[in-house]
Amino acid sequence: MKLRSLLLATAGAALLSATALSGVRAEGVTIDDIVKDQSTPADVVSYGIGPRGQRFSPLETLNKNNVKNLTPAWAFSFGGEKQRGQENQPLIKDGVMYVTGSYSRMWAVDAKTGDEIWQYDARLPEGILPCCDVINRGAAILGDKVYFVTLDAKIVALDAKTGKTIWRKKIGDYEAGYSATAAPLIVPSESHGPLIVTGNSGGEFGIVGEVQARNPDTGELVWTRPVIEGHMGTLNGKESTMTGTKNESWPGDMWKNGGGATWLGGTYDPDTKLIYMGTGNPAPWNSHLRPGDNKWTSSRIAIDPESGEIKWGFQTTPHDGWDFDGVNEFVSFDMQKDGQTVKAGATADRNGFFYVLDRTNGKFISATPFVKNITWAKGIDENGRPIYNDDNRPGDPAEAADGKKGKSIFAVPSFLGGKNWMPIAYSQKTSMFYVPSNEWGMDIWNEPVTYKKGAAYLGAGFTIKPIFDDHIGSLKAIDPATGEIKWEYKNKAPLWGGVLTTAGGLVFTGTPEGYLMAFDDETGDVLWKFNTGTGIVGSPVTWEQDGEQWVAVVAGWGGAVPLWGGEVAKAVKDINQGGTVWAFKLPKQMAAN
Amino acid sequence: MNTGWKTIVRGAAILVVSLAAALPAAARDVPADPLKSVMWADMAERFLAGGDIVFDQRVRVMAPRSAEDQFFVPVTVDATRLPGVTEIVVLADLNPIPKVLAYRPVDAEAFIAFQIKVEQATVVRAAARTADGIWHVGGTHVDAAGGGCSSPAMAHGQANWMATLGQTRARVWRETRDVARMTVRMRHPMDTGLADGIPAFYLSDLEVSNGTGRPLASIDIYEPVSENPTFTLKPRIGADTAELDVEARDTEANEFAYSLPVPDPKVAN
After folding, report:
1. Mind telling me how many Å the CA of A245 is from chain B's nearest CA?
2. Which CATH number covers residue A484?
3. What is the pLDDT of residue B196?
4. What's the mean per-residue pLDDT of chain A?
5. What does the pLDDT average to over A420-445?
6. Which of A152, A295, A372, A445 is the most exposed, having the fewest neighbouring CB atoms within 10 Å of its CB?
7. Own/partner pairs for B218-221, CB < 8 Å, 24+ apart?
8. Is residue B30 a part of any domain in this protein?
9. A358 catalytic per annotation
């Protein structure tokens, strides 16, 4: 349209004159910068510090000996009265931090001083249906644009310099329960150039999980891939292929509102050139209404960025009856096992098991429990399928005398999972995964339910209970080759923040009690902690700036725990809300020891 | 002490030099404001960049002496007696966001009418820039009870206001053989960001073209323009122009387009 070309021309002219004045060429972020993000510690240009999502930094200036000198450098408040859960991870490029917050807001902040450069507030419609707090998990950056998704299921491209909206596109219909909260993923492709890839949220409203890939310049769709069997994908504006075979693992019409929300986004591996997405719980929660495996819910799927085709799928919880909403991130790593290097990927599932798969083909390698007292399955068989404990599936309400409430059971883990959204980290130094987990169970029962657009589609009631007196949260170091838990740090409140690990031998994570903590990566000893004044449910990052190593985390209590947490909510009721970026650095003069 | 003084003096010298370097040439003379607004010097510096400034009666700003409704204060800017106008910037000095709009009559008369919100009694002024770069300024004083910019839009009384976003009503008349008069109204809350809990969200760009893609007029629109903005413009058209196209965009990148037929010159209006 003419207006757009006029606007672009104006923007171009403005950019030209700005660069002419400053004498610096504005380069922006290239796709190569994103693919190699992990090896360029002066910036953080992807969610997960590299598309594999290892959250490992090669920086070693900050180490076990000097971390005690890590010092606050600045703090930046999100302000307003909208202080809800801040589950995001900041990005840093050319001295600017891009950080998102609750209620679909984004800020550009001077990474050296904490001064605000711009703020963007999405104008959200009334009637959005986010299930689990009004959070956002972070931005993506490419060229001169930054991107993030909004609670009304849109993706927005902003001018990185000004925060002005360049384009905005619909991911799904918010009135039907679609929403979006994950950081977009930017991947290379040969046929289409870079693509910006998003998932969707709304698994509690009977939506259909989907992966969408767009042109980052225009926002136009390149391909879409629904994850529920029976739905058609698209490529270049035309129907492409059906996902799976209709009714192979779903009865009747249940696939039409089958859930499988791809709400945590995905990772990408430059070796296999595959996008890895997790898919969420089947809808409704009442599993008796949908006999079958219900593919691809509670699964990991590998998608070819060229075509949007599913190259492989691995279902962690077939026929899920516990909301083991297996979106958990799939982290690529090279595993040394029996003297061989295995192209592996690992994921710590909501269902309490830590899986290692061959990332080239999805073949099962191993699964070991990473939380205690799991009840729903006796174990995982040699093909990766759970050995169900049939008594521990919530009873069929149809078999109840009144037909209204099925038999209630106590299951471990709870529906909030052995691990929820909060990302794990993999250390290339120790070859271990650091997993923020929770030890809890739930009473759960099923009820009849029918689908109604925009209404909760659960067919279940539940309440969460701690299983130990002294802790729910548990940060664990796991050896992926053996499944052995090398150390554990117990935390009273449930852990809900992401993990970062560094070549300096440190593991960082935050707690609902407000502490950003640094652990010894080999022993789990607490080496440093700082109280940010409100609960931390975000993911820390580290980068190098002016020859000093920096660490930043967003603090601000919220997320699903206080909304859904049952008895657990009592344990966190005295934690106050907030919304602040905290930036720390190791001053040069203190880096020596 | 000596060293300290030297540093300060040197610092001051550098400051003077760098200030001088930042200015294009000699500092311009900003004439005193006949309307005696306390904000005038600031307005001139922030919004009327470069070029000399003159107060010019050929730039007429018509608005009620007292605003009956501070959410909809009608303003008409008529600079048609001033030849060679390339841009008209409209300012409301005492609004929390003073810049109202910038109008570029690419191939149109130097005339625009619209409504604005006013937060308190203020001077409303228009600066018409001619091709030689000179700003010709006219203005008037509007008395008001206040609050027009910091109250929520009427639209938010309804839960489904987004469904009608960008709905357009427009009509065009032939004023003379070569000049049309058109009025276009688009549904938009024009949120200023100053009402509690409501982020800024407003129509930001509007362009009129002649149906074959030739631009006739464009407006950069800012927060103080009233809810459901209504613009009256006078594009120049040929006898064979059968259609005008309006294209608009808001700060959330929503795009709206509307085509309106131009009456046949042989048929009387």
Report:
1. 37
2. 2.140.10.10
3. 86
4. 94
5. 97
6. A372
7. B218/A6, B218/B103, B218/B104, B218/B106, B219/B101, B219/B102, B219/B103, B219/B104, B219/B112, B220/B101, B220/B102, B221/B101
8. no
9. no
